[in-house]
From TrEMBL:
<feature type="transmembrane region" description="Helical">
    <location>
        <begin position="148"/>
        <end position="171"/>
    </location>
</feature>
<dbReference type="InterPro" id="IPR039421">
    <property type="entry name" value="Type_1_exporter"/>
</dbReference>
<protein>
    <submittedName>
        <fullName>ATP-binding cassette, subfamily B</fullName>
    </submittedName>
</protein>
<feature type="transmembrane region" description="Helical">
    <location>
        <begin position="74"/>
        <end position="94"/>
    </location>
</feature>
<keyword id="KW-1003">Cell membrane</keyword>
<dbReference type="InterPro" id="IPR027417">
    <property type="entry name" value="P-loop_NTPase"/>
</dbReference>
<feature type="transmembrane region" description="Helical">
    <location>
        <begin position="264"/>
        <end position="285"/>
    </location>
</feature>
<dbReference type="GO" id="GO:0005524">
    <property type="term" value="F:ATP binding"/>
</dbReference>
<keyword id="KW-0067">ATP-binding</keyword>
<keyword id="KW-0813">Transport</keyword>
<dbReference type="GO" id="GO:0005886">
    <property type="term" value="C:plasma membrane"/>
</dbReference>
<dbReference type="Pfam" id="PF00005">
    <property type="entry name" value="ABC_tran"/>
</dbReference>
<keyword id="KW-0812">Transmembrane</keyword>
<dbReference type="GO" id="GO:0016887">
    <property type="term" value="F:ATP hydrolysis activity"/>
</dbReference>
<keyword id="KW-0472">Membrane</keyword>
<dbReference type="Pfam" id="PF00664">
    <property type="entry name" value="ABC_membrane"/>
</dbReference>
<dbReference type="GO" id="GO:0015421">
    <property type="term" value="F:ABC-type oligopeptide transporter activity"/>
</dbReference>
């Protein structure tokens, strides 16, 4: 369930104290486009220069050919104004053309880096972060940054240069009136500063709330069946409505803040224009200014109205980009904690005998008050199948997740043939270890792609063997065989079908270590018996660690380890344990169910 929007795990206090710092840190992404940016800035500045020249031409027209009734001069200056207008149009086209390709390229580069970083981050990070928050950062936050880099930033630079250039021209035309216009920058600066401060907070709030809403939509899509089955649709709709309402309120608040400030940004240049008209008319009357100069002055001043009016939008865009950059850097600044040690070595399949040892292994989830595993010792001999049995929540799945280093031990060590797992290259370890989780995860891609996720090079025969082994030949019967694209999470398949595909994926290529978390839980009695028979064949020549809940699956194991409160309390064969360990009997006899064939089913 989504946490409150201000409760993002990695909200960094530093990011708030220096609002533009994180945006500035994105500058390396601009570097490959430096030439294009320089080119578009030149085009934009040239277009501005062309537009600024027009009022000066008009001044000459009014004071020259119009005053003297000189038709040839009028035509010449008219043609010059036309040329300037044409040049401006062409330059604006060049700027827009260049702008779009470079900014989209930058957005794609940042997105690729975030995605690659998310892949490197440990499972613990993804446990803590809502997926909707990540989704909104990779999509809407990046779009905000793209808009700022392609439009906001350019217009900020351009408008400041235009403002400065116009003020210089105005001062040259009439120093006092020019200084009056220059002075209007003071209230504009004060309004901008206040607006930026308030808009920054609102913008961050809105982006976080967008993430919350994305999380709600994602949860609804994934949990739709459960919610409907429990008749909780209305509650879910109410929860969504509350989230959407908060987002709406923040959006309206932001828009009103922008509207209020934009009104002030409109007022200041118009008041200045009024003052200039009065004072300018007096100056013309006194002979200090020609009519042509006054027309040029006012025309130039009118050219300041749009840059000032757009200031509100540019600041808003800049603040949104700054908070979006904060949110993106919160992800990029999270260091991947499970990485290769500097001297990590690869381990080839042919070098592995398969002795897996847990030596005084402890593990505590980040932020959890107590450890889940306490100085646990366990050895799985090469080629042996060891089943883990224990009450629910005792830490079985957690122990399995430490083998492919999805989480890192917080005490002790795990060794494979004597090598500490942390001394092995992560990539090579994960190629040696195949995992099938209790909840089989399938991706929205073809069945074949799902199967060969860990072995993209697997041949057709290997895939067929794995499917046969996992009793998953039904895959060939799908409408397009193995090319059939299965839905997100494999939802177009039954639970048992998904589990069998996940099992086929795990056994594909005969891994050195097989780690299976209750791999047969969703299978019917008949299929379970078939998969068990097939699994027995695979397990013969690989080291395997299985979490099992059913006595029938326990029979697959050479030995069984009983887990209690994060420790291994007894190890032995199933019959030894049944005979000698009352706690084992108790776990296996908890919540017994009876299968139609009379065999007792047991769930821990
Ligand atoms: N991502 C997590 N973050 C924090 N605590 C967790 C996390 N995953 C599991 N836990 C806690 O760790 C303990 C052990 O969980 P684990 O899933 O390993 O138990 P289990 O023995 O496999 O249970 P089951 O048989 O029900 O699958 C539980 O108390 C659980 O609440």
């Amino acid at each position: 369930m989504p946490a409150p929007s201000d409760g993002n795990p990695a909200a960094h206090p530093d990011a708030r104290s220096q609002p533009l710092r994180n945006l500035w840190r994105l500058r390396p992404y601009l570097r490959p486009y430096a030439a294009e940016f320089a080119w578009l800035l030149v085009a934009a500045l040239a277009a501005t220069a062309a537009s600024l020249a027009v009022p000066l031409v008009v001044q000459r027209v009014v004071d020259g050919p119009v005053a003297r009734h000189d038709e040839v001069g009028l035509l010449r200056l008219g043609a010059l104004a036309l040329l300037l207008g044409l040049a401006e149009a062409v330059l604006i086209f060049i700027r827009r053309w260049t702008q779009s390709s470079s900014s989209v390229g930058m957005e794609a580069a940042i997105r690729a880096d975030i995605y690659a970083h998310l892949q490197r981050l440990p499972a613990g990070f993804h446990d803590r972060w809502q997926s909707g928050q990540l989704l909104s950062r990779v999509t809407s936050d990046l779009s905000v940054i793209r808009r700022f880099l392609s439009f906001g930033l350019l217009f900020l630079v351009l408008n400041l240069i235009t403002y400065a250039a116009v003020v210089v021209l105005l001062i040259r035309l009439h120093p006092w009136l020019g200084l009056l216009v220059a002075a209007s920058a003071v209230p504009l600066f004060l309004i901008s500063r206040r607006f930026a401060r308030h808009y920054h907070a609102a913008s961050r709030r809105m982006q976080d709330q967008q993430g919350d809403v994305a999380t709600l939509v994602e949860e609804t899509a994934q949990g739709l069946r459960t919610m409907r089955a429990y008749g909780r649709g209305p509650e879910l709709a109410a929860r969504f409505a509350a989230g959407a309402h908060r987002l709406h309120d923040t959006g309206v608040g932001k828009a009103r803040l922008l509207a209020r400030t934009s009104a002030l940004f409109d007022l200041v240049p118009n008041l200045t224009l009024g003052a200039v008209l009065v004072a300018g008319a007096a100056a013309v009357a006194g002979g200090a200014l020609t009519i042509g100069q006054l027309v040029a002055f006012v025309s130039l001043q009118l050219m300041l109205i749009w840059p000032v009016q757009s200031l509100g939008w540019i600041i808003a865009n800049g603040q949104e980009a700054a908070t979006a950059a904060d949110r993106i850097q919160e992800v990029l600044d999270t260091p991947p904690t499970i990485v290769d040690a500097p001297d990590a070595r690869p381990l080839r399949r042919s070098e592995v005998r398969g002795r897996l040892r847990f030596e005084r292994v402890s593990f505590r989830y980040p932020g959890a008050p107590t450890p889940v595993l306490h100085e646990l010792d366990l050895t799985v001999e090469p080629g042996e199948t060891l089943a883990l049995v224990g009450a629910t929540g005792c830490g079985k799945s957690t122990l399995l997740s430490l083998v492919p280093r999805l989480h890192e031990v917080t005490g002790g060590r795990i060794t494979l043939d004597g090598h500490d797992l942390r001394d092995l290259r992560l990539g090579s370890l994960r190629r040696l270890v195949a995992v099938a989780f209790e909840e089989p995860t399938l991706f929205s891609m073809s069945v074949r792609e799902n199967l060969t996720l860990g072995r993209p090079d697997a041949g057709d025969e290997e895939v067929r063997a794995a499917l046969t082994l996992a009793q998953a030949d039904f895959a060939y019967e799908l409408p397009w065989g193995l090319a059939t694209r299965i839905g997100e999470q494999g939802l177009s398949l039954s639970g048992g079908q998904r589990q069998r595909l996940a099992l086929a994926r795990a056994v594909l290529g005969r891994p050195a270590l097989l780690v299976l978390d209750d791999p047969l839980s969703a299978l019917d009695v008949h299929t379970e018996a078939l998969v068990e028979t097939a699994l027995r064949r695979v397990l013969r020549d690989t080291t395997a660690l299985l979490v099992v809940h059913r006595p029938s699956t326990v029979a697959l194991a050479d030995r069984v380890a009983l887990m209690e409160g994060g420790r291994i309390v007894a190890v032995g064969t199933h019959s030894e344990m049944l005979a000698e360990v009352p706690a084992y009997r108790a776990v296996l006899s908890a919540e017994p169910e009876r299968r139609p064939d009379g065999v007792r089913l047991v769930r821990s």
